[in-house]
From TrEMBL:
The chain crosses the membrane at residues 12-33, 39-59, 87-114, 140-158, 170-189, 209-238, 250-272, 298-319, 339-360, 380-399, 419-442. One of its GO terms (cellular component) is membrane. It is a multi-pass membrane protein. This is Sodium-and chloride-dependent GABA transporter. It is found in: Membrane. Its main location: membrane. The keyword Nucleotide-binding does not apply.
Amino acid sequence: MSKNQWSNKFSFIITTSAFAIGLGNIWRFPYIAGEGGGAAFILVYLILMFLVGIPILTIEMALGRMSKTTILIGFEKLAKKYQWNSIGWLGTITCILIMGFYIMIMAWIVIYLWECFSGKISKLSIPEITGHFDVVASNLSIVITVILTIMLAVFFVVRQGLKNGLERYSKGMMFGLIILMIGLCVWAATLDGAAEGYHWLLSPDFSKINFRIIMSALGQLFFSVGVGMAVAFVFGSYTHKNENLIKSTIWIIIADTFFAFLAGLMLFPAIFSFNLQPDSGPNLIFVTMATVFNQLEYGWAIGTLFFLLLFLAGFTSLISCVQGLKDTFKDKYSLSDTIALLVVISCITAIAILAVFSYSDNPFLIFGKTVFETLDYTTSTLLLPLSGLLIVVFAGHIVGFDRLKSHLITGLEKITIKAYWKVVLLWILPFSLLIILINGLLNT
């Protein structure tokens, strides 16, 4: 049984928000919003967040609080049957795999941060910037060294425990994130041509809302809130019995969505000011934004702050996942904190190093895909939605709404509220996740 408990409600909300806010908020949400109709997409996304995002995150955390332990033991305890542990293992393995390639991306970010600070990016020509990412990614020894350094920092933070480690560092980094994001948004607003970026991101165009865009929004939503990765379950087990999970989750979702919105206000005014094409994913930050910094008079300084922002966003998610995984293995196998932490870090590091070799001269291919591409596809298209689907089916049909409802919110008495949550749990969430899973497989 997990003996950890949040210091207070504020610590719970801030730390869980730090876990949810990650690279996807910066490099994916703004692009989907602009491509999908601007303000029209944002309205649809907010509706989906309240209909689907808040309930599914609340339900996973409620399962954790109900079990009073971590996910590998929790499912067995709640169902009183050993075989349900497979859902816990699915979420745990998914989290480890995602962190394996996530840490590689963070290593690239650290390298670009240093190259901006040292002025190297400013000295490259535009054609050189386009190909520079391949140069960085294929420098295997440097990337692996940075990965090991980051994991050493993760060990240092998580080894200090929930309150002195994860809580304390998440609060400090969230403060840094807010300051950097607001500062960069103000900078972007001063650029010539910024209005065009705002127009692309915010102008409502409901004609662009279609099935593909809605599926992109749902996929981004589930990935962003971190459902199906075991961490929300573990964080729920840390909560006090009187914690109003629904209210807390609303604040977490608001913080996560607001940060993603600010990222758009920071990125696209800068991109359109230099007549560049909007993009998403690694190309957005390692090519498009690097080109912006290359052309600015003080681009080295702005670029350094930008990549520092990315690092903080990624690092808070990373330490949250490692904390949850560490406690999961500690409880399951009665390990010490240090041994459990070393097991988790070793697994993530091993996967990260395998992913790094995707950029070698002769990469190992799995059905025509590199290890990195395989990890990305398997986790985002298959494992995450499948894990989320099994969790909500377990909550609704094995645990049952009548057992779960008292852990969702203190004083859930109103019949209309109970009826709404029951419909969401039994029908809306399973249907949404099933559609995402099928859509992802069909579009492969």
